[in-house]
Specification:
mainly alpha; 9% strand; 434 Repressor (Amino-terminal Domain); globular; single chain
């Protein structure tokens, strides 16, 4: 499965599987996108800071649909190279 997310610049970010993104990469994507955990909580309905904390610590995962939503939110303003560097190296 390939996850494709269109960015504002009409580029498409593809990643093989949101399940394969490490907890550290999730945190780095969030920070690179300029979000604090509370900011994400305000952007995504029914998602709490505790859910993000557990995802970023590797103690609990979110549903695939939630991870796709987060991936889209985080990568919206990031360049393809930034996303690839974070996901591939962390």
């Amino acid at each position: 499965m390939v996850v494709s997310v269109a960015t504002d610049s009409s580029d498409t970010v593809e990643y093989a599987d949101v399940d394969e993104i490490s907890p550290m990469a999730w945190r780095l994507l969030r920070v690179a996108a300029g979000y604090e955990q509370r900011g994400v909580e305000r952007e995504v309905d029914e998602l709490m800071q505790a859910h993000l904390s557990m995802l970023e610590n590797g103690t609990r995962g979110l549903s695939e649909s939630r991870r796709r939503l987060l991936f889209g939110l985080y990568t919206e303003d990031l360049g393809d190279g930034q996303v690839e560097a974070i996901v591939d190296n962390f």
